[in-house]
Amino acid sequence: MARSLTDAVESMEQLATVWRALVLDRSPDADVRDLPGLAVRWAESRFGFWNCVTLTETGTDAALMEKRLGQAADVMRSKEQAGFVWVFEDLLHAGARASLMEAAGRAGLEHAFSGTGMAGDLLPVPEPAHPELTFVRVRTDEQLRAYADLNARAYDMPLEAGRDGLLGSRLWKTGCTPIWACGTAFR
Q: Does residue 150 lie in a domain region?
Protein backbone atom coordinates (compact mmCIF):
# COMPACT_ATOMS: atom_id res chain seq x y z
CA MET A 1 0.00 0.00 0.00
CA ALA A 2 2.92 2.38 0.62
CA ARG A 3 3.83 2.49 -3.09
CA SER A 4 0.19 2.91 -4.07
CA LEU A 5 -0.16 5.80 -1.61
CA THR A 6 3.08 7.36 -2.83
CA ASP A 7 1.91 7.07 -6.44
CA ALA A 8 -1.51 8.51 -5.56
CA VAL A 9 0.03 11.50 -3.76
CA GLU A 10 2.36 12.08 -6.71
CA SER A 11 -0.53 11.88 -9.20
CA MET A 12 -2.73 14.22 -7.14
CA GLU A 13 0.11 16.73 -6.76
CA GLN A 14 0.83 16.54 -10.50
CA LEU A 15 -2.82 17.20 -11.27
CA ALA A 16 -2.96 20.18 -8.90
CA THR A 17 0.27 21.63 -10.33
CA VAL A 18 -0.39 20.90 -13.99
CA TRP A 19 -4.03 21.98 -13.96
CA ARG A 20 -3.00 25.29 -12.41
CA ALA A 21 -0.83 25.99 -15.46
CA LEU A 22 -3.46 24.71 -17.90
CA VAL A 23 -6.34 26.76 -16.52
CA LEU A 24 -4.20 29.90 -16.21
CA ASP A 25 -3.16 29.39 -19.85
CA ARG A 26 -6.86 29.28 -20.72
CA SER A 27 -7.86 32.19 -18.48
CA PRO A 28 -5.52 34.47 -16.51
CA ASP A 29 -8.47 35.12 -14.15
CA ALA A 30 -9.03 31.40 -13.46
CA ASP A 31 -9.90 30.27 -9.94
CA VAL A 32 -6.77 28.43 -8.74
CA ARG A 33 -7.30 28.45 -4.99
CA ASP A 34 -5.83 25.90 -2.60
CA LEU A 35 -8.37 25.41 0.18
CA PRO A 36 -8.12 23.04 3.16
CA GLY A 37 -8.35 19.59 1.56
CA LEU A 38 -9.27 20.94 -1.90
CA ALA A 39 -7.43 22.29 -4.93
CA VAL A 40 -9.70 24.42 -7.12
CA ARG A 41 -8.61 24.67 -10.76
CA TRP A 42 -11.45 26.38 -12.63
CA ALA A 43 -11.10 28.24 -15.94
CA GLU A 44 -14.86 28.67 -16.53
CA SER A 45 -14.32 26.96 -19.88
CA ARG A 46 -16.89 25.00 -21.86
CA PHE A 47 -14.14 22.35 -22.06
CA GLY A 48 -15.03 20.71 -18.75
CA PHE A 49 -11.57 19.29 -18.07
CA TRP A 50 -10.32 22.81 -17.38
CA ASN A 51 -12.83 23.08 -14.53
CA CYS A 52 -12.05 20.83 -11.59
CA VAL A 53 -11.82 20.51 -7.84
CA THR A 54 -9.47 17.87 -6.44
CA LEU A 55 -9.51 16.31 -2.98
CA THR A 56 -5.94 16.64 -1.65
CA GLU A 57 -5.67 15.02 1.80
CA THR A 58 -4.27 11.57 2.57
CA GLY A 59 -5.90 9.01 4.84
CA THR A 60 -9.25 10.78 4.58
CA ASP A 61 -11.95 9.01 6.59
CA ALA A 62 -15.58 8.72 5.48
CA ALA A 63 -16.83 11.74 7.46
CA LEU A 64 -14.11 14.08 6.20
CA MET A 65 -14.51 12.77 2.65
CA GLU A 66 -18.23 13.51 2.75
CA LYS A 67 -17.51 17.02 4.05
CA ARG A 68 -14.94 17.64 1.28
CA LEU A 69 -17.28 16.31 -1.42
CA GLY A 70 -19.97 18.71 -0.15
CA GLN A 71 -17.51 21.61 -0.23
CA ALA A 72 -16.37 20.64 -3.72
CA ALA A 73 -19.99 20.48 -4.90
CA ASP A 74 -20.59 23.94 -3.38
CA VAL A 75 -17.64 25.31 -5.37
CA MET A 76 -19.02 23.72 -8.53
CA ARG A 77 -22.51 25.12 -7.95
CA SER A 78 -21.02 28.62 -7.64
CA LYS A 79 -19.60 28.37 -11.18
CA GLU A 80 -21.21 28.97 -14.56
CA GLN A 81 -19.55 26.10 -16.45
CA ALA A 82 -19.67 22.40 -15.60
CA GLY A 83 -16.59 20.55 -14.40
CA PHE A 84 -15.29 17.61 -12.40
CA VAL A 85 -14.35 16.60 -8.88
CA TRP A 86 -11.24 14.40 -8.92
CA VAL A 87 -10.93 11.84 -6.14
CA PHE A 88 -7.77 9.75 -5.88
CA GLU A 89 -9.19 6.69 -4.17
CA ASP A 90 -5.82 5.53 -2.82
CA LEU A 91 -5.74 8.71 -0.71
CA LEU A 92 -8.91 7.63 1.09
CA HIS A 93 -9.15 5.39 4.14
CA ALA A 94 -10.66 1.99 3.24
CA GLY A 95 -13.99 2.90 4.89
CA ALA A 96 -14.18 6.10 2.88
CA ARG A 97 -13.46 4.24 -0.36
CA ALA A 98 -16.32 1.86 0.41
CA SER A 99 -18.78 4.75 0.81
CA LEU A 100 -17.47 7.04 -1.96
CA MET A 101 -20.31 6.60 -4.45
CA GLU A 102 -23.03 7.07 -1.83
CA ALA A 103 -21.30 10.13 -0.34
CA ALA A 104 -20.87 11.66 -3.80
CA GLY A 105 -24.56 11.11 -4.48
CA ARG A 106 -25.54 12.84 -1.23
CA ALA A 107 -23.39 15.81 -2.32
CA GLY A 108 -25.35 15.94 -5.58
CA LEU A 109 -22.51 14.52 -7.68
CA GLU A 110 -22.72 11.70 -10.20
CA HIS A 111 -19.95 9.40 -11.38
CA ALA A 112 -18.52 10.64 -14.69
CA PHE A 113 -15.67 8.19 -15.36
CA SER A 114 -12.65 6.53 -13.80
CA GLY A 115 -9.03 7.11 -14.71
CA THR A 116 -5.56 6.03 -13.78
CA GLY A 117 -2.91 8.31 -12.31
CA MET A 118 0.29 8.97 -14.15
CA ALA A 119 2.86 8.36 -11.41
CA GLY A 120 5.64 5.98 -12.25
CA ASP A 121 9.20 5.57 -13.39
CA LEU A 122 8.47 5.67 -17.12
CA LEU A 123 11.29 7.73 -18.59
CA PRO A 124 12.58 7.61 -21.16
CA VAL A 125 9.34 7.28 -23.12
CA PRO A 126 9.79 5.87 -26.63
CA GLU A 127 8.64 7.92 -29.59
CA PRO A 128 5.03 7.06 -30.49
CA ALA A 129 4.61 4.83 -33.50
CA HIS A 130 1.67 3.42 -35.44
CA PRO A 131 1.72 2.33 -39.09
CA GLU A 132 -1.41 4.33 -39.97
CA LEU A 133 -0.74 7.49 -37.96
CA THR A 134 1.68 10.40 -38.07
CA PHE A 135 2.63 11.96 -34.73
CA VAL A 136 3.55 15.65 -34.76
CA ARG A 137 3.87 18.38 -32.12
CA VAL A 138 1.02 20.87 -32.34
CA ARG A 139 2.65 24.10 -33.50
CA THR A 140 0.10 25.98 -35.62
CA ASP A 141 -3.38 27.32 -34.98
CA GLU A 142 -4.72 24.87 -37.58
CA GLN A 143 -3.12 21.90 -35.78
CA LEU A 144 -4.39 23.17 -32.43
CA ARG A 145 -7.92 23.41 -33.82
CA ALA A 146 -7.68 19.82 -35.12
CA TYR A 147 -6.38 18.70 -31.71
CA ALA A 148 -9.25 20.52 -29.98
CA ASP A 149 -11.78 18.85 -32.27
CA LEU A 150 -10.19 15.44 -31.69
CA ASN A 151 -10.43 15.89 -27.90
CA ALA A 152 -14.03 17.07 -28.12
CA ARG A 153 -14.99 14.03 -30.17
CA ALA A 154 -13.05 11.66 -27.90
CA TYR A 155 -14.96 12.89 -24.85
CA ASP A 156 -18.33 13.28 -26.60
CA MET A 157 -18.34 17.06 -26.22
CA PRO A 158 -19.49 19.66 -28.75
CA LEU A 159 -16.63 20.83 -31.00
CA GLU A 160 -17.09 24.33 -29.57
CA ALA A 161 -16.23 23.01 -26.10
CA GLY A 162 -12.91 21.57 -27.28
CA ARG A 163 -12.13 24.75 -29.16
CA ASP A 164 -13.00 26.88 -26.13
CA GLY A 165 -10.55 24.83 -24.10
CA LEU A 166 -7.61 24.79 -26.48
CA LEU A 167 -7.71 27.51 -29.16
CA GLY A 168 -5.37 30.37 -28.32
CA SER A 169 -3.28 28.23 -25.95
CA ARG A 170 0.42 29.03 -25.73
CA LEU A 171 1.27 25.87 -23.77
CA TRP A 172 0.12 23.40 -26.39
CA LYS A 173 1.98 25.14 -29.22
CA THR A 174 5.27 25.77 -27.41
CA GLY A 175 6.01 22.20 -26.41
CA CYS A 176 5.70 23.07 -22.72
CA THR A 177 2.62 20.91 -22.29
CA PRO A 178 2.38 19.46 -18.77
CA ILE A 179 1.89 15.76 -18.08
CA TRP A 180 -1.68 14.38 -17.80
CA ALA A 181 -2.88 13.04 -14.41
CA CYS A 182 -6.23 11.43 -13.62
CA GLY A 183 -8.46 9.98 -10.89
CA THR A 184 -12.12 9.26 -10.33
CA ALA A 185 -14.21 12.14 -11.62
CA PHE A 186 -17.66 13.26 -10.52
CA ARG A 187 -19.83 16.00 -11.97
A: no
